[in-house]
Amino acid sequence: MSTGERVGGGRPRLVATDLDGTLLRDDGTVSARSVAALRAVAAAGIETVLVTARPPRWLHDLAHVVGDRGIAVCGNGAFRYDVADRRVFAERTIDPALVAEVARDLREQLPCTGFAAERATGLAAERMFAAIHDHPEDLVTTDRIEDLGDARVGKLLARNQHLDDEEFLAAATEVVAGRVVLAYSGAGGLAEMSAPGVTKASALAAWSAELGIAADDVWAFGDMPNDLPMLAWAGRSFAVANAHDSVRAATTDTCRANEDDGVARVLEALL
């Protein structure tokens, strides 16, 4: 595998990168070097896409990273987001009846599980949901997530403070039994659930197809298990040095860690 300092082979037509733990540093900031590299790639005519588990509301401050052309596939593939315009322009949501069914089963089989829902319009959460981050000011609260009714949920979140992270995620995976896509992005024991077939990979593939770009012409960067389908789909895949073991084992290449501007170093060598 390459260390990312030299990148032979053909030039990509699209570069897709995860954010947290990959492009962003551990404190959630993005270095000037990474911004310059990503924008230089875009200026050279290569499409750039941010592909992240983050909801749209967590991308507002990243317009400078992608410039005027950049979009994000966010919410683990649930939303397409124009970063510069702060606009969701496509979404793939979970059927409300399925939200209710999955929440009911998790609540019954894993007592004290709390739920929240990422939507294009913002976050809704049960009053008992144990948040990892501060709630936004426009939070919609409810006693049960099912009471949102026909609201369009892009990503259903579940957390249980009485079970350790691995125990809860394993149990939740068994309970949902493939009815939704359950992903783990490394966020404090959160089970992140999307509609059937909705992943970073499927969303990126759909966007690339609309642009007329084949998988072989895509380079993708990631660090966590929820990136694996995207990395497997892309023609060339890079794991940052700090990536989860399963990710480093699955990619075609590795690059330096997020704290050492690994993505930027690959892009600089590309140009």
UniProtKB/TrEMBL annotation:
Superkingdom in the source lineage: Bacteria
Might you report a single GO cellular component term? Answer: cytosol
Cite the GO molecular-function annotations of the record: magnesium ion binding; phosphatase activity
Q: What is this protein called?
A: Cof subfamily of IIB subfamily of haloacid dehalogenase superfamily/HAD-superfamily hydrolase, subfamily IIB
Origin species, per record, is Janibacter alkaliphilus
